[in-house]
Amino acid sequence: MQKLLIVGCGDVARRTLPSLLGHYRVFALLRDKTQFAFWREHGARPLLADLDHAASLQRISGLADVVLHFAPPPEHGTQDTRTRRLLAALARGKSLPQRLVYISTSGVYGDCLGARIDETRPLRPNTARAVRRVDAEGQLRRFGARHGVRVAILRAPGIYAADRLPIERLKRGVKALASADDVFTNHIHADDLALLACAALRYGRANRCYNATDDSQLRMGEYFDLVADRFKLPRAPRISRLDAAREMSPLQLSFMSESRRLDNRRIKNELHARLRYPLVADGVDQAWQSRTA
Predict the structure, then answer these.
(1) Does the pTM exceed 0.85?
(2) How far apart are the C-alpha atoms of 155 and 16, rounded to whole Å?
(3) pLDDT one-digit tens code per residue, 179-203
């Protein structure tokens, strides 16, 4: 049985486990020992290591046949030093992984002015977060080409799930842009992103990027309205972009400054994806039903 290493053991990683166990011997790289119990109980072997400390990564050299890399870059700088340390540790092993799947972000495209785009769109990141993701993608693609490792990159947009909806923000009176100023936003349910990660392990082509998004084409305000209506909450008040610039933090504004519609034909044609929640409305309805069941 092949050995699979999960790096970045958050919510999406946990959702991949049911599809991995029985097919792989799963190892989970963790920097917090309090998380060991969960992973052991669910059939994985935890390893204590920290991507911010190269010396702690020695034990993963030569360990894995397959790697799922879900860890985010550091919070500062223009480079993803965590990915650099991970790849250096993997490269030191007597054997290298055969396959590696990385979850990036659709923010690497920057603002596309609402255009529908596919994976050939040039990368023009507008935020420091996205710049670090572009750096990570470049590192991974060079690593794959140099060592013959089949690297697949999933560019994920806004990830949502029953416990990741803007319900509390709506209750606090979050504001959205007026229709004339609003931006297109893209979404993927956390279960479907886990599904796509597993599909990329099996079908992902070498050095290939995939828009990991559902079929929805919603503006941000429409997304807030959808959640508000389903959960019987007041809709978010709409304000102009000028007022938003005065009232919102730079982080909030950054999410309202990029507009694009992701084309997802590649995940369907190459990864044979059959999404559980092809529309955001499907996932929101499921979340509502689970609350009222």
Answers:
(1) yes
(2) 17
(3) 999 999 999 999 999 999 999 999 9
CA 272, CA 235: separation in Å to the nearest integer? 37
Distance CA 212, CA 153 (A): 9
In a domain, 99, yes or no: yes
Residues in CB range of 160: below 8 A, 6 or more apart: 187, 188, 189, 190, 280, 283
Phi/psi of residue 63, nearest 5 degrees: -80, -45
The DSSP symbol for 95 reads: S
Give the whole-angstrom CA distance, residue 187 versus residue 278: 10
Instruction: Report the sign of the C-alpha dihedral through residues 49, 55, 57, 60, in that order.
Output: negative
User: Residue 152 belongs to what H/E stretch?
Assistant: strand 150-156
Bridge partners of 164, per DSSP, are none
Q: Which domain holds residue 145?
A: 2-161+187-217+260-278
